[in-house]
Amino acid sequence: MTSQEVRTRFLDFFKGKQHKIVSSAPMVIKDDPTLMFTNAGMNQFKEFFLGNSVSSSKRVADTQKCLRVSGKHNDLDEVGKDTYHHTMFEMLGNWSFGDYFKKEAIQWAWELLTDVYKIDKDSLYVSVFEGSDDADNLEMDQEAFDLWKAIVPEDRIIMGDKKDNFWEMGDQGPCGPCSEIHVDIRSKEEKTKVPGASLVNQDHPQVVEIWNLVFMQYNRKANGSLENLPEKHVDTGMGFERLCMVLQGVQSNYDTDIFMPLIREIEVITGHKYGNSEEVDIAIRVVADHVRAVAFAIADGQLPSNSGAGYVIRRILRRAIRYGFTFLGTKKPFIYRLVKVLSSTMGNAFPELKTQYQLIENVIKEEENSFLSTLEQGLVLLESVVKTSKTKTIDGRKAFELYDTFGFPIDLTALILEEKGYGLDMEGFEKALQVQKDRSRSASEVSKEDWTVLSDDSTQEFVGYDALEADVKLVKYRKVSSKKEGDQYQLVFNLTPFYAEGGGQVGDKGYLKAPNGDVVYVVDTKRENNEIVHFSENLPKDVSGTFKAVVDKKQRWRTASNHTATHLLHQALREVLGDHVEQKGSAVHSKYLRFDFSHFSKMTVEELRQVENFVNARIEGQLPLEENRNMPLKEALGQGAMALFGEKYGDTVRTVRFGQSIELCGGTHVKNTADIWHFKIVSEGAVAAGIRRIEAITSDAVKEFYFNNNRMLFEIKDLLNNAQDPVKAVEGLRDENAALRKQVEQLLKDKAKGLKNELMGEMEELNGIQFLAKKVDLDAAGIKDLAFEMGGQISNLFLLLGAEKDEKAILSCYISKDLVSNKGLNAGQIVRELGKFIQGGGGGQPFFATAGGKNPKGIEDALKQAREIVVS
Ligand code: ATP
Ligand code: MG
């Protein structure tokens, strides 16, 4: 059965059980401070489990792109070494939100595996939660046990502890006991030798967990305690790649049709065969796995970068580059060449891989190039560390420096040192690393109290599209503390006019006014999961009662102007540059806007001018805002609305239209483009391979921009004695300056000539040598010119010139080549000797050499000494 069929059958099966099939949420999470990447199918439904929102369908099924490389679920170090853990994998899941529970979940799972997929019943094992006698004090899951007992023989039911059979998403959030299904794919012979039951949950590569049925019934609170959820839910997750391994009768996920095309391509590119050596195999698996994670992340809008989620992606890619570098001998970028195969094998299920193919390739290639050169630099540095080391063990702090400043991986350092017969002081490295970690952790650590809940009103309506003021009630609040921000309060209201940061737009600021007149400032507004959270520095004295919530009007207007201008800019870029332009990120602030987009060359001045004109024409055109807050997604896309990759859209969306510009957007906008006043681009540049960035300003900021320019012009005019035409005046100054420069040069030349003539007249004949030692007023270059010119005219010249500049001394000695060979004189030796007088040193060639020193007073003595040298 092909992997495509496996996926379709899963979804069809649950469709037949009245499940709604939904699409995968983005792999990169943007609005949940507790999670960077989707690590399980349930993430996108967390709010339904917690009862914060209600799902329109009680039964749902999907395949979800997951990434387990950070936080509670981190498989990164295992990936490639084993055959069944990936960084990015697909999780097939079915869900019940307060609808069916254990009975149906268990029966359907069994039916699908044994009836539809026809997996041999005798190769399956199931596990049940045995309870815990720790602080949670949980009972054994008798219900699940009884349900399984009706289906499978009791010796195939394995009791599991909290680690394996109590599922938690993270340190907080929904959780509950689970029942896993494991499959034994060993040969018949092996099965008779060692019973499968003894290998379940023992990290055996052929007895692996494929499906986890989680029965959600608790919420883990910040203080560590469990509370019952308002309703009971089902959350299941089946590893798609593992299922394919079982159904395709192979022994490793990598032997399925999901990975084989990638592996074949790696073989072709690197010339290494898969299946001959463990080291090479691991490297090939690492590369085949990691290219998927990175490609999907980029398609989701997450580019590799130096912080946060982008840094995690960069590290994954670097891990692949490093394995290639060390074990596959790839010294040139090659991973980007796999993107083509990937997009042709997975592009049907995930079309974003096809549409973003070019970008993904470019970004990966650039990352490879830059990391490979880092590796090379690192190797050179490592070489010098080894050379200068007095012992056979390299200092851990040195290795840390390499790691910290060059991103040179420590295991590679260790490996290379080993090859050279050196050891590494790992302890010293770990210590240095720990010091750095502690430093950054204490700066970023945030402690959060549990919410104090005042009412169970969970409407949370956002009324800020229409109003900038509203009467609100506090629903809950909590204190959060961090070193960076200090103590802050987070406030949630029943409704709010404050826009929460999202879609690139910053959150609103403003204030709350209590009935008694007290004012509390709102410094920011952010969305956390589905809640709009207001940040303030203090708490109202009396938290009950009705507050007047007031948004900072001016900031909102500036931000709205920038947001609308961003839409117009997007439209303009597609018009001027072409349809390949796609939004790759945007930041809408009150003071400026930033827009990143795909395009492959620097924009010309003419293109920038056209874009600016296009936007300003629409501002002058006074286009009204036409918004539809409730349009079916299909209809909106049908109207040509711009949707973004990596964004999760619901069934109905909000559309924002100004003339021909129409976008799916939740942000706040001006009522009419005329409100923007004017649009001005302030910079254009590259941010990554194939991605450009424009920064622009509107409204007040443009006014300020022109005001400042104007003031500068006045200052310039003032400096030019109020010239009528400052441009002409500056041109005049420029020409005059050039003419003066020429004159000065000529004068200097004349002076040098004069000096030369003067010196020629002062020559003294000593022992058949034309001798002169004198202090002159020239710099080193002038002295050299002069000496060589005189040397050209006199064939037995000994010249020593001294000069003083900025309290420093120089001595230059010129000796004709004839004298060097006939009399054994050596200018290099002589200046070294005379250098003593000026407290310095120097050197050069036998016929010309220079010394510098810090004692100009010694020049006279040096000149006298030169005579001694020639006379003697
Ligand atoms: P394991 O113990 O094998 O790491 P898990 O207990 O971490 O699995 P769950 O969190 O229950 O797994 O996830 C549900 C299913 O997703 C698993 O049954 C498995 O089939 C699959 N799965 C989990 N982690 C990975 C991974 N890193 N790569 C591929 N599939 C995975
Ligand atoms: Mg795991």
TrEMBL record:
Names of the cofactor(s): Zn(2+)
Limits of the Alanyl-transfer RNA synthetases family profile domain: 1-708
InterPro entries per the UniProt record, alphabetical: aa-tRNA-synth_II/BPL/LPL, Ala-tRNA-lgiase_IIc, Ala-tRNA-ligase_IIc_anticod-bd, Ala-tRNA-synth_IIc_core, Ala-tRNA-synth_IIc_N, Ala-tRNA_ligase, Ala_tRNA_ligase_euk/bac, DHHA1_dom
Keywords of the record: Aminoacyl-tRNA synthetase, ATP-binding, Cytoplasm, Ligase, Metal-binding, Nucleotide-binding, Protein biosynthesis, RNA-binding, tRNA-binding, Zinc
GO molecular function: alanine-tRNA ligase activity; aminoacyl-tRNA deacylase activity; ATP binding; tRNA binding; zinc ion binding
Cofactor binding description: Binds 1 zinc ion per subunit.
Domain of life: Bacteria
Compartments where found: Cytoplasm
Gene Ontology biological process terms, A to Z: alanyl-tRNA aminoacylation
Binding site for Zn(2+): H563, H567, C665, H669
GO cellular component: cytoplasm
EC number: 6.1.1.7
Key word Metal-binding present: yes
Broadest EC class assigned to this enzyme: ligase
Catalytic activity: tRNA(Ala) + L-alanine + ATP = L-alanyl-tRNA(Ala) + AMP + diphosphate
NCBIfam families, per database record: alaS
HAMAP family recorded: Ala_tRNA_synth_B
Function: Catalyzes the attachment of alanine to tRNA(Ala) in a two-step reaction: alanine is first activated by ATP to form Ala-AMP and then transferred to the acceptor end of tRNA(Ala). Also edits incorrectly charged Ser-tRNA(Ala) and Gly-tRNA(Ala) via its editing domain.
Family according to the record: Belongs to the class-II aminoacyl-tRNA synthetase family.
Domain free text: Consists of three domains; the N-terminal catalytic domain, the editing domain and the C-terminal C-Ala domain. The editing domain removes incorrectly charged amino acids, while the C-Ala domain, along with tRNA(Ala), serves as a bridge to cooperatively bring together the editing and aminoacylation centers thus stimulating deacylation of misacylated tRNAs.
PANTHER family noted in UniProt: ALANINE--TRNA LIGASE, CYTOPLASMIC (PTHR11777:SF9), ALANYL-TRNA SYNTHETASE (PTHR11777)
Protein name in the entry: Alanine--tRNA ligase
Native source species: Flagellimonas allohymeniacidonis
Gene that encodes it: alaS
